[in-house]
């Protein structure tokens, strides 16, 4: 397992680059926004709660008055807002240099999206699948364009059935979360293969923060929250340390694809560590099946957009095939 001798202090000047960060109003997203803005990057904060996003923006501007920050509404569970977010960037002719697919939910009671998909799968995977496809033309014109997907080591215990994304059989919040993170990993790797095959300038880089001190488990059952709290006393990294792999991937054109870039071993200073992937992440047949099903549900033909920008008519609340 090799690594890069790189830390937050090595973050280069980002003046002239535009970043879209999902889930930018808390946790990892807020930390990445702060570091990139400090280094001159323009950050479009894609958030579900714009009031909370505005509060974070004001706090960052008080610390860094010259920061270039925009707050835009994006609810990854609601595909209408994903389409509206992307359409606004297109109407404004915004070039995106880096899309950081960071936002997500975890260990929540079972509920379904408007398309009938379990909410963790719909939020953590399908929302980002659609957003990425809709922004590929914005990214293709960028400087060192990259899609950074935030995964998790829990992919190793995840199980994904593309024909049962509603998680109808034996629902468990923890298992559903692991399944959603396996889906994000499969998507990032399949996107990398397809981008390279198409000769696209856009790169797909897969990362994870390790165990981080975030509020992702805020909606988890009390027992799960208690277990997280106990483990967190020893193993969970401060968010400013945990975002190291993501910031490295978003700002370094040499960041490797086809690897899982993490922060390294716990209890040590974070540095981008290039981890080899194991099954089920290496199951290409599963990745292709999930890709096809994701395109059917979201109505976003990501594969078609690799060749040239296309427009997909969106009908809210159902699959567009």
Automatic annotation (TrEMBL):
Record keywords: Oxidoreductase
Family annotation (Gene3D superfamilies): NAD(P)-binding Rossmann-like Domain (3.40.50.720)
GO MF: oxidoreductase activity
Keyword Oxidoreductase appears in the UniProt entry: yes
Domain of life where this protein originates: Bacteria
InterPro entries registered for this protein in UniProt: NAD(P)-bd_dom_sf, SDR_fam
Protein name per UniProt: Putative short-chain dehydrogenase
